[in-house]
Structures are given as structure tokens and as C-alpha cells.
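Page 37, continued from 36.
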């Protein structure tokens, strides 16, 4: 086994490679220019190959340096995330959950008080974005129904939470022309329309299409009378109950489920297991 160089040399290398300058790296690391230069020289001697070459008044990575920088950058990122989780766990039982903004706004956050009443010692941190750009860095759990873009290993770890039911929704005044209306599609899960048509045997012969990056915006657009949106039943529940939206063709169960995906291979923590159990119970609803 080859001995690793001192961690300080790797820090100096990563900062210099990222900034392209020993001076900027020294400022970032709060070291002198000479100290960083010595660390780089020590690392290159240890490796037995040059990692930088002159580029005007600065430095640029050699081919070997560029390849090693990718490794070092990923390793430091993983260390930082792991240490952040360690510190957070030491302060209080915390759970970092990644989910779509629509799911957070329309279902999860309005019910968080229920979870905190049951488990007041656990604190949930949310990462929210659009379905196609889910930020999972540092997350313990991902909550989603469409896992097509995730790895096979992540899909195998997925824990079913509840079935999902999709259907076209529109403003009541729009319902009579829904079959030939404007289709409102999600930028990142537009395949949901194709799935719904195959499962329902119906087709919306659209006269146009509007696209939005969040299901929440699709539902709002439908409520405003702009067209027909495809929504999961829970996400449009409030508008359906209030009569703001109607579902002219009802809802169809998709052959997938809303799932919680542990983002690493470790067994679920007590906080994560408590959250999964609570979600399973809270997601139950009458047909």
C-alpha cells in the first residue's frame, strides 16, 4: 500500500488547482505564499510526477494533476458532508430530507406539526427543488415517485411509502373542452402524461402546450383556467375539495409508489425510521 502524503499538502493542492493561483490558495487557507509553495513541492516530490505547469503568471494543472484533482475534490467533498452529518447528529437527532418543492409545500410542510408532536426531539432539514434537479448532496433520504434518473443501487434501496394516483385536472369552466384543450406539462416529468394515457386508455388531443418546472405551478395554471394539468391526487387535494379544480376523468393508479430512498448503504437511523413510519401512516387516505 502506498503511503498517503500529509493532508496539508492535499489541501494546498486542491485550493491551488481550484483557484489557479498559489496566492489565492494561500489567502483562502490563511497561509503564506511560501508555505503553500512548499506543500505543493512536497506533494509533487512524494508523487514523483509534476502536477502543475507554468501558465503566464499563474499555474495550470498537468494531465496527471487534473486527474488527481478530480479524486481529491470528491474526497474532500465526501469528508465535509460526512463531518457535517456527524456534527449535526451530535447536537440533536436531525434528518436531512430531499424532495420536490411541490411535495414539500403541498403535503409535507403542512403536516410537519403532526410529526413534531410525535417526535419532538427530531428536527427535519429540507432540500427542495424541481423534480429534474433534485439536490441530494448530504441528504439522508430522498422522497420521490419517479426514480428513473437514479442509480440501480438507489432504486433497490427504495422504501415504498404509498401508491400514487394521477389524473388530469382543470378549472370547472374548462372541463367541457378539456379533451381538446391546452395541455400543461411538467418540464422534467412530462412522461407522466404518456403513462396516464397508456393506463387510462384516454388521450388529451391538445391544441397547445404550456410547460412549468414545478407541479405546483402546473396546478396553479390549471386553476387559473389556462389548460389541463396532470396532477397526483394528493397534490391537488385542496383545490379539488374546494371546487377550484375538477378531475373530469378521475385518477389512475400508477404502477409505482411514492418512495423514500436512503442515500447511502447504512441502516436507517432511528430518526429516519421514525420519519418513514410516520409518512406511511400519514399518506394513507380513502380512495
Amino acid at each position: 500500500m502506498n503511503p498517503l502524503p500529509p493532508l496539508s499538502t492535499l489541501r494546498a493542492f486542491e485550493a491551488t488547482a481550484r483557484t489557479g493561483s498559489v496566492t489565492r490558495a494561500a489567502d483562502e487557507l490563511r497561509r503564506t505564499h511560501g508555505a503553500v509553495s512548499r506543500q505543493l513541492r512536497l506533494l509533487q516530490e512524494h508523487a514523483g510526477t509534476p502536477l502543475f505547469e507554468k501558465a503566464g503568471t499563474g499555474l495550470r494543472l498537468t494531465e496527471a494533476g487534473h486527474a488527481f484533482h478530480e479524486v481529491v475534490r470528491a474526497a474532500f467533498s465526501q469528508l465535509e458532508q460526512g463531518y457535517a452529518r456527524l456534527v449535526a447528529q451530535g447536537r440533536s437527532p436531525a434528518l436531512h430530507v430531499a424532495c420536490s418543492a411541490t411535495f414539500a409545500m403541498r403535503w409535507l410542510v403542512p403536516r410537519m406539526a403532526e410529526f413534531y408532536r410525535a417526535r419532538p426531539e427530531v428536527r427535519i432539514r429540507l432540500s427542495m427543488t424541481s423534480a429534474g434537479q433534485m439536490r441530494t448532496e448530504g441528504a439522508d433520504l430522498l422522497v420521490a415517485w419517479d426514480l428513473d434518473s437514479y442509480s440501480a443501487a438507489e432504486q433497490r434501496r427504495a422504501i415504498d411509502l404509498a401508491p400514487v394516483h394521477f389524473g388530469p385536472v382543470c378549472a370547472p369552466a374548462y372541463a367541457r373542452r378539456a379533451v381538446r384543450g391546452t395541455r400543461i406539462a411538467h418540464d422534467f416529468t412530462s412522461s407522466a402524461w404518456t403513462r396516464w394515457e397508456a393506463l387510462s386508455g384516454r388521450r388529451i388531443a391538445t391544441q397547445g402546450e404550456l410547460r412549468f418546472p414545478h407541479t405546483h405551478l402546473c396546478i396553479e395554471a390549471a386553476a387559473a383556467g389556462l389548460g389541463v394539468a396532470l396532477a397526483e391526487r394528493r397534490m391537488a387535494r385542496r383545490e379539488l375539495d374546494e371546487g377550484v379544480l375538477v378531475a373530469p376523468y378521475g385518477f389512475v393508479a400508477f404502477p409505482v409508489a411514492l418512495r423514500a430512498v436512503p442515500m447511502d448503504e447504512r441502516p436507517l437511523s432511528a430518526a429516519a425510521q421514525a420519519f418513514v413510519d410516520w409518512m406511511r401512516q400519514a399518506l394513507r387516505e380513502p380512495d
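The two ends are 60 Å apart (CA to CA). Flag for discussion at group meeting. Strands lie at 52-55, 58-61, 94-100, 123-129, 141-144, 159-169, 182-186, 208-212, 228-232, 252-262.
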